[in-house]
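ugh ok so i messed up the first submission bc i forgot one of the chains. this is the corrected input, ALL of the components this time, i swear. 522 residues overall. if the numbers dont match what u have on ur side tell me asap before i send this to the collaborators (the ones from the other lab, u know who)
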Amino acid sequence: MKRKVKLIFPTDRTQKPVVARLSRDFNVDFSILNAQITNGMHGDMSLELIGNAGDIARSIEFLRDEGLHVSDISRHIVWDAQKCTACGCCTAVCSTGALSINENAELTFDSERCVVCEQCVGVCPLNTLSVNYEA
Amino acid sequence: MLRTFDEVNEKIRAGRAVVMTAEEVVKLVQEEGVKAALPKVDVVTCATFGAMCSSGAFVNFGHADPPIRMGKIWLNDVEVYGGLAAVDTYVGATQPSEKKGIAYGGAHVIEDLIAGKPVHLRAESGGTDCYPRTEVETDLTLDELNQAYLYNPRNCYQNYSAATNASDKTIHTYMGTLLPGCANVTYSTSGELSPLLKDPNMRTIGMGTRIFLAGAQGYVAWEGTQFNRGHEEGYEGGVNDSGATLALIGDMKQMNARYLRGASMKGYGVTMYVGVGFAMPVLDEDLLHDLARPNSQLYTCVYDYSSGSRKKPMLRRVSYAELRSGKIELNGRMVNTAPLSSLLFAREIAAIVKESVSRGEFLLQEPIARFDPATPFKPLKGGAVLK
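and heres the new structure output, hopefully the right one now
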């Protein structure tokens, strides 16, 4: 399974390597979606954890024991409708049809159909699409 | 000839002209036929809002004291042309920022100026006896400039090819992101609202034609670069998949940034979305027939953009009605299609021009000169054997 989490590192925890242990000790693979950590200061990191449910649960318990704040992410695409001209460039790469041009030539975004593949993000010529990693 | 420009203008001045958008006239003629519709419409408006790379603006900054003959010039870290007179420049739309790359470029500088934002000017010079200053740096807004006018050497393509990608890798092009295995097709037109598709013989459009250009009243200045009227046999609508282009001019100080947007095409570069609108007098039955042509009778061809060659393989001919439906058949399967130009904004502009003509604020200018339909579009001399 995959689970996306946001880690918050309190100031006194930024100097201790903990994330690497997810794969070493818990058999959990991870990809870093976003990270802002400065040694000796507050930091945060968004991870996608990949592994079996038990391993992932144990790894999250470990992170909490290490003093990190862990919460599940609802990563989603943010669309700036005010800036959008409905040119349609994003619909060329949207495989699920979440972004589409309706019969009134307007762009519509159906977040229910969006799988957050992020293909649209760089493709918008007016930079109206971005990813929100907020937990 | 049924109507002349003068007669139509007289009706416009008197507030008696019947004005319709090209989409409205398509419906009218479908319901009533050309003959019955002819007395019911005087003017038809068309518009487009698409990426037009060959765009830019001439600007005059005014002189500092002591003055400088600007040799190297930057606006918001985008280099602009230093090869004109002392304080003149040309802001090329596609020039990328030296600091932000293709995320910001000349087109964004033009948009920012029109939006009233201050733009940072930096210029250098070797200094001359008459222009002793060697450096200048200041912030300027559009109001503080002397002249600032858009001059776009190539806008309003009559028609344009649709794009797909037969290779096994995603490619990033000026036709957007094309997925491998011909998994998508992109196209760029306002179709039955598109100015030069609706007047394929350019009976109402030539030098001096008054237009809506990004919110201002602008003009057709000249034939566009790569103007290509070479008709191919068998094309309904009389145009092939490139066709005529127009050079456009207009005063930036009258423009609205809603209708001019700096844009960045992933993996390709900076471009500018420009809104352009036209008002055509319905001169006679033949012209109304053309103006009323629906998307189902307007065509382009799908080309494989993964071919690095100038002559790309053509996969099929397709109508804009098919492309607009969201799916077309390609190589025996249904493939998603996506537009790159905004029909929503084209409709908005066609409606604005309709409103302006109806109120008598937008008169029609008969072309001062017409463009030679035989103009050939030549490739670069020896281009196929250059290293």
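quick check: Residues 22-37 of chain B form the longest helix (16 residues). that seems consistent at least. Residues 233-238 of chain B have pLDDT under 50 and may be disordered.
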